Amino acid sequence: CRAAVQCGSLICPWPGEGSPSCGTSDASSASNQRARRSPGLKLTTESQPREESQESIRLPALTSWCARGSTTSLCADLTLGSGGGQGGIDVKVCRNGEGYFVSGEGKDVELVNAFLHHLSVRNFAATTVRTYAFHLLSFLRFEHERGLCVADIVPSDVFDFLEWLSRPKVTGVVVPIGAGPVASASTMNQRIAALRGFFEYAVITGVRTSSPVPSARRSTGLSSKPRGLLGHLATSRRHRGGDRLVKQPRRLPESLDAHDVAAFLSDLNTHRDRAMTLAMVLGGLRSSEVRSLLLCDVDVGARRVRVVGKGNRERVVPIDRPFFSELTAYLRHERAPDCATPECFVVLRGPTEGQPLSEAGLRRIFRTHRVNSGARRVRPHRLRHTYGTELAAAGLDLLVLRELMGHVSPETTAGYVHLSPETLAEEYRRASSKR
Fold first, then answer.
1. Of 276 and 99, which is predicted with more confidence?
2. C-alpha span between 344 and 26 (Å, rounded)
3. For position 229, what pLDDT does the model report?
4. What is the pLDDT of residue 226?
């Protein structure tokens, strides 16, 4: 699902005379929205021409940024449909040598690209910018289906966006009975967080006068306190929870049984795959940390690895001997001696041999061996949860566990401290025997 495209053809120009205008003010846009939606009004926006804005929106020039770097870009196959609004559009998330951007035409697309470029300038991680790009791509699709643009968005549109996300995805004639929502509660809140940052950027750049994204805990629910650009990225968990528009269930970290982990490991065919799995279950590494692990950061003698995690935070993690045994066998027998890739784990065969293992490649490994081994609950992050749960149950100090797992908030680490069903049953049996 990857396509190579010329970056020069993906530069997002301002729309021509035949393109929809997004230059109306917030007040007129809100009144137009109310007129279009209210069934009691005889006058609709379709019957009257919209006023064209005389002032152009000044945004950072992105043409040179999109043109720099590699001449080709990898684009996800996420083409927006042609239904609703003013003609079909083709919008994709692409990447060049400078970072991620959205290909397509229109002022909204260019504003999204300006925001993504701003995140890159502020040294946000590439994975964070990529996540924002896909979240905003989803909102662009919603905009296109409803015939809206950034200047038209009102708070009720944000709730309509949540309702749109909760619909089952219809890809054909037959719709499965009981089909679940497209996005989970966590995904919805992440997209609202990306939307909040995007509209705060639109306010600062003068595209809008206020942000339409509601605040979850205010009495009216229709406005939020201005906290500056990217103020939605709060460091306090309590503050972040207050901005969630969708209530999330609070669940314990889901760990795996030793039998499932052993069955999955026994089905892996290469030392590379076993080493990656052991890094997660014996070292608590995230899947992205495993893929980005460098050879120079592996200390076989001390049995430690240096990991660069979220937010470019470094930590040193000790890992047991089985990981280094599989890693040594992989480097000796499977990785090509002349491979100059700095990443530790690379593709072993095919046209991309010797290149770093991709996220899709790692998912394919787990998906294949889950089916073959019968351990269908094994996921990369559940291996990490198993690592944290076992160490917490063994009585490891929470501050030490926090450093080992690379958590920012101690509350995240505290979630691993919970009593197992066996412990609860044993304590209940002891209490019952004393009665």
1. 276
2. 52
3. 52
4. 52
